[in-house]
């Protein structure tokens, strides 16, 4: 197993589960917010592990800007970023029983998408912003991974997706 947050999960949980998938998705949300990889050996100390580095800042909306992707230049809806940070924090909870169901995560993201206060930040050029992202076609459908068995690897697109 090459170093990744999936390996960390397996060592914590010793098995793959829907709650482990929720944790992994929480890490993906953090990668999107911060523009960083889950593990980065080029960073010093605690900054190598995205969860350990970001988690203390996620609880306080006044500190959230410290972990936001600097490439965004502050040009993002603050309320939306805070809501996604809170959702990520729930997903990466150490106690798997306290993590939300993936259906709850999807519902929260869809509510954020639909929220007029989070569609466009006043600083964003509205001509370059699209708010027409369709609802998930998988909502209410059984997970395709469940039909493949508990040890099914993530899809190739999931493994190769990177945030720049």
Outline the structure in words:
With 164 residues, the protein is mostly helical. The chain has a domain at 5-116: Transferase(Phosphotransferase) domain 1 (Transferase(Phosphotransferase), domain 1), CATH 1.10.510. The chain is 46% helix and 0% strand. It contains eight helices and no strands. The protein has helices at residues 5-13, 18-34, 50-58, 78-91, 102-114, 116-119, 144-148, 156-160. The radius of gyration is 16 Å and the shape is globular. It starts with a helix and ends with a helix. GO terms for molecular function: ATP binding; protein kinase activity. Residues 120-164 are annotated as: Disordered. Residues 1-112 form the Protein kinase domain.
Helix content: 40-55%
Using the coordinates above, name the CATH class of the domain at 5-116.
Mainly Alpha
Tell me the CATH topology of the domain at 5-116.
Transferase(Phosphotransferase), domain 1
Largest sheet, strands/sense/barrel: none
H/E series, N to C?
HHHHHHHH
Radius of gyration: 16 Å
- Under the CATH scheme, the architecture of the domain at 5-116 is Orthogonal Bundle
- In DSSP terms (H or I, runs of 4 or more residues), the helix count works out at 8
- Estimate the mean pLDDT confidence: 74
Within CATH, the superfamily of the domain at 5-116 carries the name Transferase(Phosphotransferase) domain 1
The stretches of 5 or more residues where confidence is low (pLDDT under 50) are: 1-5, 121-133, 142-164
Give the class from helix and strand content and strand pairing: mainly alpha
Query: Percent of residues in beta strands?
Result: under 5%
Question: What's the shape?
Answer: globular
């Amino acid at each position: 197993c090459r170093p990744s947050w999936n390996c960390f999960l397996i060592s914590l949980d010793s098995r793959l589960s829907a709650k482990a998938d929720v944790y992994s998705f929480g890490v993906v949300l953090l990668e999107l917010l911060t523009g960083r990889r889950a593990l980065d050996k080029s960073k010093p100390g605690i900054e190598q592990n995205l969860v350990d580095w970001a988690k203390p800042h996620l609880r306080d909306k006044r500190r959230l800007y410290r972990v936001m992707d600097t490439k965004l230049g502050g040009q993002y809806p603050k309320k939306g970023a805070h809501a996604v940070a809170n959702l990520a924090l729930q997903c990466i909870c150490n106690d798997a029983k306290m993590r939300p169901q993936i259906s709850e995560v999807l519902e929260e993201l869809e509510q954020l998408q639909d929220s007029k206060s989070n569609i466009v930040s006043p600083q964003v050029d509205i001509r370059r912003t699209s708010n027409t992202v369709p609802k998930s076609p998988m909502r209410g459908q059984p997970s395709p991974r469940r039909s493949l068995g508990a040890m099914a690897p993530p899809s190739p697109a999931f493994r190769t997706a990177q945030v720049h």
